[in-house]
Inverse folding.
């Protein structure tokens, strides 16, 4: 792991977790970069500038999230306010403060899933970080191993879509096994979907509510062509997925990672109250 | 808004993916608890876009309810425990009106077209209430723009709309983060766009005395009969 980290182009190390986990979580610098949006909103330019940000190199693990819950008991599954998470929150764990015997989704090094947007946000905040914005996440995820923006490449798109199409009823791999992309970030594709801070920024038009619209067939065919780049169906899937979420939703293939702005210093670890 | 722009087409595409299936999306239906890849479910009912043409003006008085009251099973948004600052320069909590029914929505003060219409819709709801219910019902409007919409600006907005009734509160949250927590809990979508404006969905939500959503209206100029009936029947 350490040897692999040394290969990253830019990284920072943060001690993480109070006692049981002392693993080193790498952050990588992403950006600054201009970024062409696949789905610009009305009144929004096609290309945005994304300032440089520090980004967790891999998604947050069960072990790391457990450390957060132990330090912040209001986020235990038996205490969390219902407005902040649905009933399935952390239900893959044995108990509110135990992962239990390793299963398909509760291994210490597997990405934590069944976390709501509120919980993911609180976790990042406890570390002096935040969730990445949608623009930030998409910029980081547009890169492949050698290029900052590989979205035009059918081979790259195909790899991402292959993952999207694969039912992940089997267990999740551990984090950090993916190949680092151009920015040094891993597992952006192929492990779990990830929360972003502004997941619900997308308007849904009144027109789209008319389920019996005679133009439906036409629009269906035009759906992917409506993107700025008609071929990037993988991006389309992510924007569509996000627009389907509510903040308290938890599912077994939705996790997260944190980001922060370079001039802010993340906290060294979680402190018990 | 007669010609669909490409963003509309995107969203229509999203809804259609679930209808038609897409080859790239896999052949097995995911378990219910998993994010569907093929079938993208609309979790929150979609809300009309800014500037949508009026479709169902509120003209008729609400019909008296004959249906039994159905309590809300939704979580209380008051558990978010957010701090607000009002047009009267008061620091309050999101649950400032706990114990009373609340009609809540979000807006921003410099909004050119939508927000005046929203306030007009809310006034119509208020005016349609029977006196005993009206005396209790509170109105809470929280801005998308906690930086620009200072208490002074909110106060001016209230004055511009002739609103002096203490049952009406215009407020801002502490920051963008808290603002999005509130909008998320209400199912209101928004994003900042250029020149200090916001694209946002418009939704009016009726909260029960404990802050649980009881009824809501998506969009502007919609029929408020059901919401009014629910409010009239609420204990």
């Amino acid at each position: 792991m350490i040897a692999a980290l040394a290969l990253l182009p830019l990284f920072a190390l943060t001690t993480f977790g109070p006692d049981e986990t002392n693993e080193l979580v790498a952050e990588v610098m992403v950006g600054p970069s201009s970024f062409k949006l696949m789905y610009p909103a009305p009144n929004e330019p096609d290309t945005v500038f994304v300032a440089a940000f520090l980004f967790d190199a891999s998604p947050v693990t069960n072990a790391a999230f457990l450390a957060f819950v132990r330090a912040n008991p209001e986020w235990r599954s038996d205490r969390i306010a219902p407005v902040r998470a649905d009933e399935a929150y952390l239900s893959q764990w044995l108990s509110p403060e135990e992962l239990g015997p390793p299963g398909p989704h509760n291994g210490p090094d597997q990405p934590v899933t069944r976390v709501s947007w509120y919980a993911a946000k609180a976790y990042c905040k406890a570390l002096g970080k935040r969730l990445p914005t949608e623009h930030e996440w998409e910029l980081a995820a547009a890169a492949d191993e050698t290029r900052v923006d590989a979205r035009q490449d059918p081979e790259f798109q195909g790899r991402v879509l292959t993952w999207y199409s694969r039912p992940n009823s089997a267990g999740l791999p551990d984090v950090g096994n993916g190949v680092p992309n151009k920015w040094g970030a891993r597992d952006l594709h192929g492990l779990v979907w990830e929360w972003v801070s502004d997941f619900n920024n997308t308007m849904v038009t009144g027109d789209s509510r008319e389920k019996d619209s005679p133009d439906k067939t036409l629009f269906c065919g035009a759906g992917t062509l409506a993107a700025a780049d008609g071929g990037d169906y993988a991006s389309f899937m992510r924007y569509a997925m996000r627009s389907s979420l509510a903040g308290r939703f938890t599912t077994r293939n939705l996790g997260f990672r944190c980001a922060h702005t370079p001039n802010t210093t993340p906290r060294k670890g979680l402190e018990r109250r | 808004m007669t010609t669909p722009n490409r963003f509309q087409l995107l969203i229509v595409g999203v809804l259609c993916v679930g209808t038609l299936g897409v080859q790239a999306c896999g052949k097995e239906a995911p378990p219910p608890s998993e994010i569907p890849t093929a079938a993208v479910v609309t979790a929150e009912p979609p809300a009309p876009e800014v500037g949508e043409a009026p479709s169902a003006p509120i003209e008729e008085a609400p019909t008296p309810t004959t249906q039994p009251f159905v309590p809300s099973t939704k979580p209380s948004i008051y558990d978010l425990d957010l701090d607000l600052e009002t047009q009267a320069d008061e620091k309050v909590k999101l649950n400032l009106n706990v114990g009373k029914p609340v009609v809540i929505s979000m807006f921003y003060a410099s909004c050119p077209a939508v927000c005046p219409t929203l306030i007009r819709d809310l006034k119509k709801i208020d005016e349609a209430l029977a006196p005993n219910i009206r005396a209790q019902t509170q109105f809470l409007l929280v801005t998308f723009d906690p930086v620009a919409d200072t208490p002074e600006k909110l106060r001016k907005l209230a004055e511009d709309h002739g609103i002096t009734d203490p049952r009406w509160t215009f407020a801002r949250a502490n920051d963008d983060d808290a603002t999005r927590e509130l909008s998320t809990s209400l199912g209101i979508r928004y994003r900042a766009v250029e020149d200090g404006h916001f694209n946002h969905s418009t939704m009016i939500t009726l909260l029960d005395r404990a802050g649980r959503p009881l009824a809501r209206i998506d969009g502007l100029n919609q029929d408020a009969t059901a919401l009014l009936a629910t409010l009239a029947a609420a204990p």
User: Anything to note?
Assistant: Chain B touches chain A through 64 residues (CB under 8 Å). The two ends of chain B are 41 Å apart (CA to CA).
